[in-house]
Structure formats: structure tokens, C-alpha cells
Amino acid sequence: MGSVVQTGMMYLGRDVLGWHYLWATVVAVEVTLAHNFTWHERWTWGMAGQPGWGARALKYQLGTGTVAMMANLFAAGLFVGKMGLPTLVATPLAIVSSGVVNFLIGQFLVFKRVEG
């Protein structure tokens, strides 16, 4: 679902509203981060309602968010800026380039269960 959100936001920002592709990337990634954190918190790792929401949200933004933002800005610069690919082609390529790393950050750093 996050891929659909990011691609849709990128298309809206770049192709509908006419924003520069890097600005559209920043907005699309941030909206997607909020969306994905909510889903991960509730379903992927089932942490909803458990203490530490704020700390997990901060870790998610700093870990996954930083990786996603840097990877997507780099990929947008390459795929849109240098290669001239359309938004609807470039965005999924950018998403794939950071997806595995982001999952591992979530699994081992953000949503790691504390035994105790």
C-alpha cells in the first residue's frame, strides 16, 4: 500500500501540481512514512497500544525515514533528473531501491520487542 501512496503522491506533486521532482519526492516520502508507520505499528509488528509509541515513531523517522529519503532523492535525481523517466516509472524504481533496507531497520531496530 505504501508504494501506491508514494507513487500517487509523487504523481500528484510532480505531474498534477507541477512541483520540482525533488520537492515532490520529499512530500511523497514523508506522507508515505506516516502511512507506513501507522500500518506497521498496528499490523506488521502489532505494537499498537503498547508503551513507547513516541520512541518508535522517532526511531522510524530517523532510521527508515532517513534511508528512504536519501535513497528516494538519489533515485529521483537519477531516474527523473538524469534519465528523464516519467514519474510513474521512476517512483516504483526508487521504492524498490530502498525497500529491503527499510524493512530490516523496522524489524531489528524500530519494532524490536523488549523481553522483560
Considering the chains and any ligands shown, give keywords for the structure.
single chain, 116 residues, mainly alpha
Shape: elongated
Q: Which percent band covers the strand fraction?
A: under 5%
State the distance separating the first and last CA atoms.
33 Å
Q: Indicate the percent of residues in helices.
A: over 70%
Biggest β-sheet: count, sense, barrel? none
**Integer count of domains:** 1
Oligomer: single chain
Radius of gyration: 15 Å
Low-confidence stretches: none
Class by SSE composition: mainly alpha
**DSSP, total strands:** 0
- Let me know the average pLDDT: 88
Descriptive account of the structure:
By secondary structure, the chain is an all-alpha fold. It has one domain. It is built from four helices and no strands. The longest helix has 30 residues.
Task: Describe the structure in brief.
The chain has 116 residues and is mostly helical. Helix content is 80%, strand content 0%.
